Amino acid sequence: MAKKGYQVKEVARLAQVTVRTLHHYDEIGLLVPSGRTEAGYRLYGDDDLLRLQQIVIGRELGFSLEEIRLLLDDPAVDRREALLRQRQALERRLHATEAMIGSVDRALEALDGGRTMEPEQLFDGFSPELRDEARQRWGGTDAYREAARRTGRYSKEDWACIHAEEAELLRALAAQLAQGTPANDDAVTELAERHRLHIDRWYYPCAPGMHVGLAEMYVADERFAAHFEAHGAGLTAYLAEAIRANAARR
């Protein structure tokens, strides 16, 4: 890597992060630029870019900023071994994403053909174990039965509305995360409330307590988390924290 100084806008473009994100990393001491221009603007060096790469990958894998800081600054951590572990984790994420794409393709085929999908078909493209878990964990519940009743009558247009509504919500959450907005901020908890109401409207009654239970499931099971991470690295944990904060307020 050639020796060069990079200003903040150029680094943001290279790493595909926002300028505000880089400012936040500087403010919390996670990524402090190694130099300044004569005018006082941040100036990043080659080592700074390498550190940023590790931060971006860590966020992609769902680590918190504090966890990333510990990994980067702990002298006992073998950097090469850490990179190899990151590569392996990204390969697992790739396989999970491919499964998700297969599931989405089947859902699109069903929508284009005007067909409806049973609740367990929402898990097509994942492992058979996940579909079995869905039946075993929720098959006898009122929520599962209500979801089956509602989704069984949805049209192609209904599903398009459902998916567009959720995608808009997740994009808004990802934007707040990228800006460094705390998960308990009013703007973020309002998005968490909209997420709860989305479930409540389209699938089954979802009280704040049930929403918290869903949040714990999102975080605990990477197969569910992959859905949220597709919209932004670290979004699963961020949404879960916002859901808990929203429930506490209500």
Largest sheet: 3 strands, antiparallel
- Report the structural category: mainly alpha
Global geometry: elongated
Query: Ends: how far apart?
Result: 52 Å
How large is the radius of gyration? 21 Å
Assembly state (oligomeric): single chain
How many beta-strand runs? 3
Identify low-pLDDT runs.
Answer: 123-131
Question: Care to describe what's here?
Answer:
This protein is mainly alpha-helical and about 250 residues long. It contains twelve helices and three strands. It has helices at about 10-15, 20-25, 45-60, 65-75, 80-110, 130-140, 140-150, 155-180, 185-200, 210-220, 220-230, 235-250, and strands at about 5, 35, 40-45. It has a three-stranded antiparallel β-sheet with strand order 1-3-2. It is elongated, with a radius of gyration of 21 Å. Mean pLDDT is about 80; it is low at about 125-130.
Itemize the secondary structure elements and their pairings.
Elements (H helix, E strand, L loop, with lengths): L5 E2 H8 L3 H9 L7 E2 L5 E3 L1 H15 L4 H9 L5 H34 L15 H11 L3 H10 L4 H23 L7 H17 L5 H13 L1 H8 L5 H15 L1
Antiparallel strand pairs: 1-3, 2-3
Helix pairs in contact: 1-2, 3-4, 8-9, 9-12, 10-11, 10-12
Which descriptors would you attach to this protein?
3% strand; 12 helices; mainly alpha; 3-stranded antiparallel sheet; single chain; 250 residues; elongated
